[in-house]
Amino acid sequence: MAEMTMRDALNQALREELARDERVFIMGEEVAQYEGAYKVTRGLWREFGDKRVIDTPISELGFAAIGVGAAMAGLRPVIEFMTWNFSILAADQIINHAAKMLYMSGGQFKVPIVFRGPNGSAYQVSSQHSQALEALYANFPGLKVVMPSTPADAKGLLKSAIRDDNPVIFLEQERLYGIKGEVPDTEDFTIPLGVADVKRQGKDCTIVARSLTVPLALQAAERIEKEYGVSCEVVDPRTIKPLDIETIINSVKKTNRLVIVEESHQFCGVAAEIATQVVEKAFDYLDAPIKRISSAEAPMPYARNLEAAALPDVPKIIEAVKEVCYL
Amino acid sequence: MPKVGQKTKYESALADGKTRFSHVERWEELFDPEVAQAEYLKRKKSQIAIIKKMDKNLLREMLYQMVLGRIFEEKCAEVYRLGKIGGFCHLYIGQEAVAVGAIMAIDRKKDYVITAYREHVQAMVAGIKPETVMAELYGKATGCVKGKGGSMHLFSKEHNFFGGHGIVGGQIGLGTGMAFAQKYQGTGGVTLCFFGEAAVNQGIFHESLNMAQLWKLPIVYICENNQYGMGTAQKRAMSIANIARKADAYGMYGEFVDGMDVMAVYQATSKAIERARKESLPSLLEVRCYRYMGHSMSDPGKYRTVEEIKKYQQRDPILLFKDSLKEAKVFGDEDLAEIEQQARKKVEEAIEFAEKSPLPDERELLTDVLA
Description:
The complex is a heterodimer of chains A (327) and B (371).
Chain A: E1 2-5, H1 6-20, E2 24-28, H2 44-52, E3 53-55, H3 60-72, E4 76-80, H4 91-98, H5 101-104, E5 114-118, H6 134-138, E6 144-146, H7 151-163, E7 168-172, E8 180-183, E9 197-200, E10 205-209, H8 213-228, E11 232-236, E12 239-241, H9 245-255, E13 258-265, H10 270-282, E14 291-295, H11 304-310, H12 314-324
Parallel strand pairs in A: 2-3, 2-4, 4-5, 5-7, 6-7, 10-11, 10-13, 13-14
Antiparallel strand pairs in A: 1-8, 6-12, 9-11
Chain B: H1 9-15, H2 33-53, H3 56-81, H4 96-103, E1 112-115, H5 120-126, H6 130-137, E2 161-164, H7 170-185, E3 191-196, H8 203-214, E4 219-225, E5 228-229, E6 232-233, H9 243-246, E7 253-258, H10 262-279, E8 283-288, H11 306-313, H12 317-327, H13 333-356
Helix pairs in contact in B: 3-4, 3-5, 3-12, 3-13, 4-5, 4-10, 6-13, 7-8
């Protein structure tokens, strides 16, 4: 085990996959000479050169399309969006092209591509730079959606995403780039897509959290245990699609209570999907209504206090757990 | 605007043996089929000399594919009206010289083709069997994409045919990526990327051409200017309608090509492919053509007159080519009749195959979603 930041874990994953497979290349805005707007690609251009690490013009639709076309022709592109907010310019290529290519070609053209970059809020970057888009992309058949919350998960999942033969939406979080964690130094460490991880064992209430909200849920769980003697289990699906609903259901069967915490908006969101599946498959095990904590139903404001109010936080999670536990 | 017959820069360029005229002033006039025909007649003599030197089998295949495409599409219209084909069905009638002239110029082993949704003929010229194309239109299991794509989404990996795409302009970016991959892998291959003139107004066209020239990608962009984006005439949608000249914005080679003249398309594409293969440079060809049918089968065509269509039909690409082949004494009337007969038979076989084929198994609904 080695302790490192999520940024360095992602960087390691990229370096290892570039070294492992000649077909892998990285393309995006400022990924090469500038070393990445968030330094996730630091050092890679120096090591692998112009052919493998490529700076693009500010043309999200265009370079996303080049990635999809190159993937159809046998390469394994990693396309960086400086933030996922900019992916909306490229949504036509992701949704109309990458997601549907295998199906509409009758299984002939695979699109092994990873789209990655920071998703969700940062630090007072306001409405157009703070969106969490997992619900949008998870809605379309043909895409996989991955959201790591720890450096180890980030590394293992990114390596698997690059080796996957499908288009993978890989959602990082700017606020998590600097967090540190243990990363196994076993050779070629990977984590399979579609497998949830129980980040904390508990028996009284299940909290399903992802990405940024996992550390918040863990902090909340510690405080609830201390202050109220309630034991929370924290489940991190890690992959939103395919969703490991079994692990969530098994946890709910044990705790009989469920809180879902997410950074994205609530309406038609991932929490809504998880709640529905739990109701469909484990209704009789629930002792209280399911509670969701999501971002406010408003574009992200700039002011520090308003931004904080819009986002999930530890007190909100504690309140939700108290509510489902009738405390 | 100079009058017909008046000496122009274009004519001087022609006299110098140059066929490129993206920068000349007469491009707008050349929308007029009479003017285009006058230009065609000027180069016809030298073209016949070239035809005489060409491989007879290639010429036969070119004519066969054009005739096959025409009869195939006419048959599509017929069976569409009978409800055999569903959804959208965009016919290619009138534009055959573009698909045939361009795709006949590629190296099938390593070059790629990608296009939009008016692609039945492109698919067949690229090598997909008419039977499996028709079966696809019928939504049958034996279709080239197993009944999952339909008219707009024909694909064949075996034939390096990267599809049939339904979002206007989307394939321009994909084609650019395919050429990127060819260069990356050092295959020596080139991508032919077709799109209509209306796609030129999409952002993806400009983003793609910028990167293709910036990174020197081996691609030939073929703009099939059939003059209408659905029911909107080009001049109602484009501030600068000289599409070949748009290449200048990216420092790219641009050329105007008469899309009713299959030999002109063949020659221009061959040169562009050579430029891509030898120098790894992209080109933009504006190939001006005309579709006789509506945008799709549901288009009543009220935005243009029958007279206008008839005017273009006088320069029908199949008629022009047959005429040249006869004049070059490559084929006689009997040969031409035989080629047409062969094409008719092939289309009948395609219909029979499609009719007899089974619908896809319902279990296919959920296959091929993920690899």
